[in-house]
Amino acid sequence: MKSKPCNSKSTVKAGAQIIVDTLIGEGVDTMFGYTGGVVLPLFDKLYDAPINFVVPRHEQGGCHMADAYARASGKVGVVVATSGPGACNLVTGLATAMMDSIPMVALTGQVRTELIGNDAFQEADTTGITRPVTKYNCIVKDVKDLARTIREAFHIASTGRQGPVLIDIPVDVAVAKFSADGPVEIDLPGYRVRTKGHARQISMAAKAINKSKQPVLYVGGGVISANASEELRALAEKAHLPVTMTLLGLGSYDQRKAESLDMLGMHGSAYANYAVQECDLLIAVGARFDDRVTGKVATFAPKAKVIHIDIDPASISKNVNVDIPVVGGAKEILSELVKEVEYEERKNWFDKIAQWKKKFPFRYDQDSQTIKPQYVVDEVCRQTKSEAIITTGVGQNQMWAAQFYKFTRPRQLISSGGLGTMGYGLPAAIGAQVAKPDATVVDIDGDHSFNMTMTELATAVEHNLPIKVCILNNGYMGMVRQWQELFYGKRYSKSYLSNPDYAAVARALGAVGITVDKKEDVPKAVKKMLAEKKPCVVDFRVEREENVWPMVPAGKSLNEMDGLDILERLI
Predict the structure, then answer these.
(1) H/E/C letters for each residue in 255-281?
(2) What pLDDT score was predicted for residue 9?
(3) How far apart are CA 154 and CA 168, in angstroms?
(4) How many CB atoms lie within 10 A of CB 491?
(5) 305-310 vs 324-327, strand pairing mode
(6) In what order do the strands lie in the sheet with 243-245?
(7) Are 36 and 47 spatial neighbours (Cβ–Cβ below 8 Å)?
(8) Is the pLDDT of residue 552 over 60?
């Protein structure tokens, strides 16, 4: 594989200039990161570069911004950090992207090559530290390898099962000179990506779908990564299939459609969980059968034959045994599958699903005099007409956002799935707003999640990013408190901390701050928040001990949900 020539004339360039030119050649127009000693040569060249650069208040925040930028735009996110502590501060962000298969390239500075291993100032074994949380990483010790390595990084990050790639660059390599002429070849003999599925396997899958009486489409974030939502919709409509989605799969199928079963799993809908447990065919697309989805693996979808469509062969039968594996890109395979499936009414199956939906919808006490967190999400959904980009923290706030906001299109929900990273919501909102400047971006956050990265609000203010933040403030680490209530006899050990006045903090950082402690004030606060042209934080003082229902306790089967009796009483 070859690129276009770097330039038409013979030019000697510093390594830092080669980095910038190669990034521009890869289509990079936005970067995130924090400067420092050994990356000064790179930042000097960025000074004149046509690249929008966002400086966070902390490298972890910058990494989350690059991650969310990638999720919202479909492009590769790029983050830069200096050596030692700067690079180490990227680890949580890289692990978040790795678990969720997000394409990112991280460029880290390193001490001079002759000092590596000598415990030099701000030295850390960056490649050693980040190897488990990146798809690939390397250190470049020769300036002539820079352009090729960067191009390879973008290729690896954005193909196959996507993920973060890190390149560690010693400062002497960044200042070394090299004649960067001619085509730059990618040399990855051991890296092959299979996107086209095996025709026989696709035909087997189609026949199984056509034969099934009670099928369920189980859709993960891989469909969104593959830009395969239209192909998914075509399959669901042509074969008449109910569709359930993982947290990261939300938005791949319009939740307003009758075929949508919404989210499945630990805090998924009862109707999705029951459908999975009763189905005779489970068609998994771009999903990895993680523990929050399957519950007790031994009893997961016990009546079903399983089809698994995934670009990563290592995911096939990793957690759940698969009957019909189809390895390849979701977009390509679904396109072929649509040609072979047939429409089937399946009236009895959809009637049964309709009964479950009627009996066990997501609900809460709408007559409560306190502010229910679900009501806040409901109101945000109503006033944004299900059209906003939603980012979240992690915990109860995340689950209520997934349950009560109805997502209609891909890349609309941006949330930390596999790693469950608290503090993700605010920097993710910044990254998403940079990627989609004309969109309404709302961070539905928890108080303790927001506490972890709240200083990034200053980043939003500096760059005039009109993000909206809804803090569902219950004073607790909500999901931890819920588990302590249910499984530890209400011994709320260390799950409560004193919170600041968030509205005052927002105003101090240059944003708009609003406090809401009365239910009747929720609609007008949401309206004011959405009308603001600058960053706005609304502190909703919600019901303190509200729980997320339903809930599949750890080690239980999907149909063994707690809280259904509570939901039934709310009819």
Answers:
(1) CCCCCEEEECCCCCCHHHHHHHHHCCE
(2) 55
(3) 14
(4) 9
(5) parallel
(6) 260-263, 243-245, 215-219, 281-285, 305-310, 324-327
(7) no
(8) yes
| The one-letter amino acid at 556 | K
Query: Coil, strand or helix: which one is 444?
Result: strand
Which of 415, 426, 372 has the alpha carbon at shortest distance from 224?
415
**What is the residue whose two structure tokens read 């759940």?**
320
Could you list the beta-strand ranges (E) of 353-467. Answer: 389-392, 413-414, 441-446
Side-chain-side CA neighbours of 496 within 13 Å: the count stands at 11
Radius of gyration of the chain measured on its C-alpha atoms? 24
pTM to 2 decimal places = 0.96
* Percent share of the chain, pLDDT over 70: 98
Phi and psi at 507, nearest 5°, equal -65, -35
Q: Which residue type occupies 133?
A: V
Q: Which residues of 429-452 are buried (b: 16+ CB within 10 A; e: fewer)?
A: bbbbbbbeeebbbbbbbbbbbbbb
Residue with tokens 């239980």: 556
Distance CA 81, CA 98 (A): 18
Specify whether the backbone of 265 is left (phi greater than 0), alpha (psi in -120 to 50) or beta. left
- As a whole-number percent, the residues of the chain with pLDDT over 90 amount to 94
Domains in the chain (CATH in brackets) are 12-179 (3.40.50.970), 199-359 (3.40.50.1220), 373-549 (3.40.50.970)
Q: Is the CB of residue 181 less than 8 Å from the CB of residue 10?
A: yes
Amino acid at 377: V
CA trace torsion 389, 391, 397, 403 (10° rounding): 40
**What would the pLDDT profile of 354-395 be if each residue is shown by its tens digit?**
999 999 999 999 999 999 999 999 999 999 999 999 999 999
- Please state, in angstroms and rounded to a whole number, the distance separating the CA atoms of residues 49 and 238: 49
Which ranges in 279-404 belong to alpha helices (H)? 291-294, 330-340, 347-359, 373-384, 396-404
- Whether 565 and 356 have beta carbons less than 8 Å apart is answered as no
Identify whether the C-beta of residue 405 lies closer than 8 Å to the C-beta of residue 444. Answer: yes
CA 137 and chain centroid, separation: 21
Q: How many residues does the chain have?
A: 571
Return the amino acid letter for 100.
D
At 569 the pLDDT is 85
